[in-house]
Write a structure and sequence with these properties.
This protein has helices spanning about 1-5, 20-35, 45-55, 70-85, 105-135, 160-180, 205-215, 225-235; strands at about 15, 35-40, 60-65, 90, 140-145, 185-190, 245. The protein is of the alpha/beta class. The relative contact order is 0.15.
Length: about 250
């Protein structure tokens, strides 16, 4: 009973941005299996994840939302609080990557990466923080960064992505300290290379190069991120805030 209370998420309301595919979808299902009531925030296809969760006996619904538009996010969060009565956990996961050299990348594309990966995450975190502060909720916000926030990926060039993910790490630390007196914990998850449906179109020569650089010599399955997220989401991490949890097969160790 003690461990169930410490590590379980029964009746907690968990929001997952970008929960319609990839890491977000897998983590959303993991949160639901841990007992959380899950809300998917994405622009499209959220019902696919909802159906997966409900078919497994979980609780979930979807609110179409654009995380780069403040009014869209705040409206969604207000609806979630009205409908579910709380906002306890936010897995702040929306993000995109662009492989372009810095000499060739279009400034409009660079700005798009930053707008989604850092400004979008800030908009979501702040919307959650406002409701948590107003209602005295001791919540957990988990921002998604990347090992790319600490290293430079090779052989592909992705300066815009790397810069945005480094910003997420420091934003996480800043929010953690700023909101600590409200008992709101803010941490970030930094995955390494993860096998998702988007990986299908990546050339094998690039995957082989990555695997040669990863000490564990393989990319991760998205399911391997679930334990780290559950730890940051649950009461077991009550003294953990402002931290970066890296799940990268030891890539950043070398």
């Amino acid at each position: 009973m003690y461990l169930e209370k410490m590590f379980g998420l029964k009746n907690k309301v968990a929001i997952v941005t970008g929960g319609s595919q990839g890491i977000g979808q897998v983590v959303a299902c993991g949160l639901a299996k841990a007992g959380a009531k899950v809300v998917i925030i994405s622009r499209t296809r959220g019902n696919e994840t909802v159906d997966m969760i409900v078919n497994e006996g979980g609780s979930a619904y979807w609110i179409p939302t654009d995380v780069t538009i403040e009014e869209s996010v705040e409206s969604a969060f207000a609806e979630i609080f009205k409908r579910s009565g709380s906002i306890d956990i936010v897995f702040n996961n929306v993000g995109i990557c662009l492989h372009d050299s810095s000499l060739e990348v279009k400034i409009a594309d660079f700005r798009k990466i930053l707008d989604i990966n850092i400004t979008g995450e800030f908009i979501v975190a702040r919307a959650a923080g406002k409701i948590m502060v107003e209602h005295g909720i001791h919540g957990s916000i988990i921002n998604t960064s990347s090992m790319s926030g600490s290293i430079v990926n090779i052989p592909q060039w992705q300066c815009s992505y790397n810069a945005s993910k480094a910003a997420v790490i420091h934003m996480t630390r800043s929010l953690a300290v700023e909101w600590v007196d409200y008992h709101i914990r803010v941490n970030c998850l930094s995955p390494g290379y993860i096998e998702t449906e988007n990986s299908v179109n990546i050339p094998q020569i690039l995957k082989d190069k990555w695997n040669s650089l990863i000490p564990i010599h393989r990319t991760a399955k998205p399911e391997e991120l679930i334990p780290a997220v559950l730890y940051l989401a649950c009461d077991a991490s009550s003294y953990t805030t402002g931290s970066e949890v890296v799940v990268d097969g030891a890539y950043t160790c070398i």
